[in-house]
TrEMBL record:
Pfam families the UniProt entry points to: 2CSK_N (PF08521), HATPase_c (PF02518), HisKA (PF00512)
Protein name, per record: histidine kinase
EC number: 2.7.13.3
Catalytic reactions on record: ATP + protein L-histidine = ADP + protein N-phospho-L-histidine
Organism of derivation: Paraherbaspirillum soli
Keyword annotations of the record: Kinase, Membrane, Phosphoprotein, Transferase, Transmembrane, Transmembrane helix
Listed transmembrane segments: 12-32, 155-179
Subcellular location(s) per record: Membrane
Entries under SMART domains matching the protein: HATPase_c (SM00387), HisKA (SM00388)
One example GO MF annotation: protein histidine kinase activity
Chief location: membrane
PANTHER family: SENSOR HISTIDINE KINASE YKOH, SENSOR PROTEIN QSEC
Sequence ranges assigned to domain Histidine kinase in this UniProt record: 240-452
Length: 461
């Protein structure tokens, strides 16, 4: 199970606070119940003290002047049954209930004590008091059943449970919100990292981060810095290798073309040379794509290279090459080129145009159709390529821009074309969309922002 900081914080905050809350609830219960118990016991003691003035000594014996009405007043209670007893030192009943439980022997006089007992099959609370009338000790007992006490205790307990439940829920909610608020910087950092593209190795913001996250951010930024250095080294190596390969490969192609012309009459030799020429052409294309990929890397692109470019003229200059490629598969290649100006790097834009049109021709079936558009839209320039190929599933529309990802291994290519298109699009502050074409196929559209007024213009070379 993956450990969770949130759950760990909640556990270490909620559990101890709940324990403290339970202890506090217990103390509150006793603080509420004990005074109530004392009040009830004091009421019993008052009834016992009320009997003492009615005792008097007569003829050497103690008698009690307790009328029936006075006894009824002492026994009045709307909840509990009241019992009382008065006995002399020999245990003779002077007044009250004959079946009253035996009172404890006490040495101290006029010192009431309370305890629990049982009478007539029901629990009772007893107050015992010993006093002296003349030369004789008298024992007084007053008791009541526990109905009222049980009811009050239940009310206190239920009220306390309800209060503690509400307090506990409020406490948990406050802790949950506090923990969530405390983890927001981590969530924000996660969101920042998730929203980045795979090639964005810029450092994270440390100035506005909480102090506790500073060591983590410094460690991440140090790692990003190392990765950025490694990525630049790889890009430089890639660019250098591609650049060094271009010249000998171009010379090799020239030599093969010369050999093909010289041995055109020898069928087997000409066929072999043609195969080598085809392989060399593929190697040159792949080398050029690697070089373009290194140049188009967003982290290395210089915005100063952007200038106003006529996009439609860039396409016009490459029409002949595209027509020749389309004729090999009898593809109907159409161009709808309206005057369109964009801010761009003409070399990289040529590669973007070449890769999108070449990709459409490669994936369109024989006798298919490819249409190229340049449009000056209301928000900027638009370049789009529509084909009648197999289409692209929505689940793969993001994956096709990854390097070396290919939809069909049977189609020639190295999986770099759309990755190059994506990087060039980012370099120009543009966006690219992939939509299904009517009747089948795919439409790739690149939306460029308006050219900056006053920017230098560059005519395509």
């Amino acid at each position: 199970m993956i450990p969770s900081i949130r759950m760990s914080l909640l556990k270490w905050l909620i559990v101890p606070l709940l324990m403290v809350n339970l202890v506090g609830a217990g103390l509150t219960y006793w603080l509420a119940w004990i005074p109530a118990q004392i009040a009830f016991d004091q009421s019993l003691a008052d009834a016992g003290w009320a009997l003492i003035p009615r005792l008097r000594e007569s003829g050497g014996q103690v008698e009690i002047a307790l009328s029936q009405q006075a006894e009824q007043v002492l026994r009045v209670d709307h909840f509990d049954a009241i019992y009382l007893v008065v006995r002399n030192g020999q245990g003779r009943l002077l007044a009250g209930d004959a079946d009253f439980p035996a009172l404890p022997e006490k040495e101290a006089l006029n010192d009431p004590s309370t305890y629990d007992d049982l009478m007539r099959g029901e629990p009772i609370r007893v107050m015992a008091l010993k006093t002296r009338i003349g030369n004789e000790s008298i024992s007084i007992g007053v008791a009541e059943t526990l109905r009222k006490r049980t009811h009050i205790r239940s009310v206190i307990l239920l009220a306390l449970v309800a209060l503690e439940t509400v307090l506990t829920m409020v406490l948990i909610a406050i802790i949950w919100i506090a923990v969530s608020k405390g983890l927001l910087p981590l969530k924000k950092m996660q969101g920042d990292l998730d929203s980045r593209s795979h090639d964005d190795l810029s450092p994270l913001d440390e100035q506005n981060a909480p102090r506790e996250l500073s060591p983590l951010l410094k460690a991440i930024n140090a790692l990003l810095d190392k990765l950025q250095i490694d990525a630049k080294a790889q890009q430089n190596f890639l660019a250098n290798v591609a650049h060094q390969l271009r010249t000998p490969l171009a010379g090799f192609r020239t030599q093969l073309e010369w050999l093909l012309q010289k041995h055109a009459q020898e069928a087997e030799t000409a066929h072999s040379i043609a195969l080598m020429a085809s392989s060399t052409e593929r190697m040159i294309r792949q080398t050029n794509q690697l070089l373009t990929l290194a140049r188009a890397e967003p982290s290395k692109f210089e915005k100063e290279r952007l200038a106003v470019v006529d996009l439609n003229k860039l396409v016009e200059e490459s029409i002949q090459h595209f027509v020749e490629e389309a004729d090999k598969k009898n593809i109907d290649l159409g161009f709808n080129l309206n005057p369109t100006r964009v801010m761009g790097d003409q070399f990289l834009l040529r590669d973007l145009i070449d890769n999108l049109i070449d990709n459409a021709i490669r994936y369109s079936p024989r006798d298919g159709r490819v249409t190229v558009h340049t449009i000056q839209g209301k928000d900027g320039g638009i370049f789009s390529v529509e084909d009648t190929g197999p289409g692209i599933a929505s689940s793969e529309q993001e994956l096709i821009f990854n390097r070396f990802y290919r939809l069909d291994d049977n189609v020639a290519g190295n999986g770099l074309g759309l990755a190059i298109v994506r990087d060039i699009t980012k370099d120009h502050g543009a966006r690219i969309t992939v939509e299904p074409a009517t009747g089948g196929g795919t439409i790739f559209s690149v939306y460029f922002p308006f050219p900056i007024l006053g920017a230098p213009a560059k005519l395509p070379l």
